[in-house]
Amino acid sequence: MKTPFLVALLAISLSLSACGRVRESRLNPMNWFGHSQEDTSAPLGPVSNSVDHRPLVPQVTAMTIERTSSGAIVRAEAVMPAAGWWDPELVPENFGRPTNGTLTFRFVAAAPVNPVAETSAAARTITAVYSLTQAQLDTTSEVVVTGETNSRRARR
What we know:
The chain is an alpha+beta fold. The chain contains three helices and eight strands.
């Protein structure tokens, strides 16, 4: 009576211990886009056909990709040199289509009319988001957000 119980207990405990590995594996869709990594190389590639006079943010400080029921949301942050920057946007390059599996965005913002220099970093932080559909995700293996001096990328 004790032997089948112990065998069942051992089998269950081994099965549950394997769950930790699935959580960290590439099979788990929640891990497809992990934490972003900074890349300081110069951005190359085609750009969109729209004329946008907003400058690139100086440095992209954070980027995350959050899964949703209909796709994902790309969220990027930047700390600006002064408070008052407005209209931040992630502008897709190549008309929003991935190039060799890479979807690239330019992080731009409009300059303030009257900048306020002496403020905290939290007051100077701006955030921009872009919604991706499941169809865009199906052909994308990497997302890149580009600033003036760096870019951040997240891979599947």
